[in-house]
Amino acid sequence: MDTGTYGYPKQGVKKIDPSYDVPEGVDIRGRYDEEFAKILTKDALKFVAELQREFRSHIRYALECRKEAKRRYNEGALPGFDPATRYIREGEWVCAPVPPAVADRKVEITGPVERKMVINALNSGAKVFMADFEDALSPSWENLMRGQVNLKDAVAGTITFNDKARNKVYKLNDQTAKLFVRPRGWHLPEAHIFIDGEPATGCLVDFGLYFYHNHAPFRQTQGAGFGPFFYLPKMEHSREAKIWNNVFERAEKMAGIERGSIRATVLIETLPAVFQMNEILYELRDHSVGLNCGRWDYIFSYVKTFQAHPDRLLPDRVLVGMTQHFMKSYSDLLIQTCHRRGVHAMGGMAAQIPIRDDPAANEAALELVRKDKLREVKAGHDGTWAAHPGLIPAYVEVFNNNMGNAPNQIKDAKRDDAASITEEDLLQIPRGVRTMDGLRLNTRVGIQYVAAWLTGSGSVPLYNLMEDAATAEISRVQNWQWIKYGVELDGDGLGVRVSKELFSRVVEEEMARIESEVGKDKFKKGMYKEACKIFKRQCTAPTLDDFLTLDAYNYIVIQHPKGPAKL
Ligand SMILES: CC(=O)SCCNC(=O)CCNC(=O)[C@H](O)C(C)(C)COP(=O)(O)OP(=O)(O)OC[C@H]1O[C@@H](n2cnc3c(N)ncnc32)[C@H](O)[C@@H]1OP(=O)(O)O
Ligand SMILES: O=CC(=O)O
Ligand SMILES: [Mg+2]
Question: Where does the record place the Malate synthase N-terminal domain (predicted)?
Fold first, then answer.
């Protein structure tokens, strides 16, 4: 058949849709795009398919183990240290030395893999940019594939962005942050790429495509022989870290590069994982570059792990900060563990962002984050996360003032005192009150976040705070738990018990408030009603959904040529 460019028909010729050139067993169901085709090459897809085939049974097993652990916690068991791996916790071993290119990670900026933000983040003055396919990204086909294009251009050093409306061209500075990439968690499928008749594992797609296209230029221009570098999210057990280690070894073999070139920082952001920190580092000891306190998912995980423990309910979300005993214990033990094993102990994300139109409120927010960063650096953290470029100077100042010229505190802040932290310390119930305002805020934030996520934004400013998938999860599971156990809201003197009926009224009133805050027009055009339906269903479900984004994912999958699809 006679076709024009990319398979579109010449006049009078029957139309043929362009399609990706795929290897055996791979089916791409996402929209065809010329730019995406440069990422979805036959060889890159072959690599992703090989990873999927080699590791799918291990991933399935690891996810089954999560279910089994959940069953035990739901029957009353508590997470704790595993006696079978005491020898790893007590053994004297260290991880491979930190690559010189990333010895100094005092301030790391994070953000979705959106083009302008990638450039801004790399230029921000932070030491590291964590480019996010996870908490900060709504994983639509368009966002994911554009993200891969953006990262490829960033690693090549050629990325630009033309903001026509503002007549501004963005390009990279001479000096840029080192790039780390965070793929999705093990649980998320990629419904636009089928391998042997099944949706691919989301994180293997994110990792595989990025690694395939960028390992060589990255090692040359950024990693000084090491890399690429990754952040690994939401793991619950060291067996999941072992899979990543094997994936890395497989990738290194494919690329013909030395074992231990790839390096990753694991987020400790689930309650079960805090009891596995040594074991996780041990599995990844040749590929590790530390652990990070993923505080928001960690709080979410506390509620999720104790979903069937009404004696362990959380107070209002705003009261669960890093100074609560269980959070402080987690951060202290993470620092002690990392430094004993010779790697970075990274701090986490304060949710405050700059407030442009109110200098006094802005100064108050800055003071809160300075305090948070000061606590981190004094505790021994080697660096921290910033959500916004406007915060970086303040963070740099706090870390430099307290660490001087040293690139990190791995050798100087041993925190041997934290070795005595117990299971009870790590599980201690947080203190504080529960209020109607807390229920309302959870609801208002949760619905607005889901509405943004459904329309392509995975991180948003709400009420002067950064909200992303992890913070929204806290709102969702806390509402679920309060409804499930008919909790008394004791903090405001009203003594009201939470019920489905009360929650329905709150949802109605908060939807009205959202409409008045965002305006009728935006409310009508946005996906607030759909978001409300999803959020309400999840908050009132008889059993707790494992992840907010798993169910919501069905709403953003658009398979071509057939349209929306349910997994
Ligand atoms: C729990 C966790 O997982 S935390 C990690 C995941 N979360 C994140 O990474 C959140 C990242 N941060 C963000 O997405 C944003 O800062 C938000 C959504 C919180 C706030 O966004 P906005 O209100 O739009 O920011 P604002 O309008 O102040 O931005 C000003 C400028 O800074 C840029 N900017 C803001 N945040 C970032 C960032 N994280 N990285 C790069 N650039 C950024 C904007 O692109 C904008 O650039 P411009 O002036 O050239 O147009
Ligand atoms: O990913 C980070 C978190 O806090 O969650
Ligand atoms: Mg997280």
Answer: 24-86
Would the CB of 267 count as within 6 Å of ligand 2? yes
pLDDT in tens, 164-182: 999 999 999 999 999 999 9
Distance CA 528, CA 515 (A): 9
- Ligand 1 atom closest to residue 471's alpha carbon, by position in its atom list: 1
- The pLDDT value recorded for residue 480 is 98
Where does residue 15 rank: exposed (0-12), middle (13-18), buried (19+ CB within 10 A)? Answer: exposed
Domain stops at, among 274, 308, 342: 308
Task: Among 308, 335, 361, give the residue marking a domain's end.
Answer: 308
Is 185 part of any domain? yes
**Would the ipTM clear 0.85, i.e. be above it?**
yes
Whether 514 maps to a domain, the answer reads yes
Q: What is the pLDDT of residues 210-229, one digit of tens each?
A: 999 999 999 999 999 999 99
Ligand 2 pocket, residue 264 CB under 6 Å = no
> Looking at the domain assignment, is residue 71 inside a domain?
yes
Number of domains in the chain: 2
Percent of all residues in the chain with a pLDDT value above 90, rounded to a whole number: 94
What is the Cα–Cα distance from 26 to 48, expressed in whole angstroms? 10
- Nearest atom (ligand 1) to Cα of 110: 9
Q: Which domain holds residue 452?
A: 436-554
Please indicate, yes or no, whether the overall pTM of this predicted structure exceeds 0.90: yes
- Distance, in Å, from the CA atom of 203 to the CA atom of 190, rounded to the nearest integer, reads 8
What pLDDT is stored for residue 494 in this prediction? 81
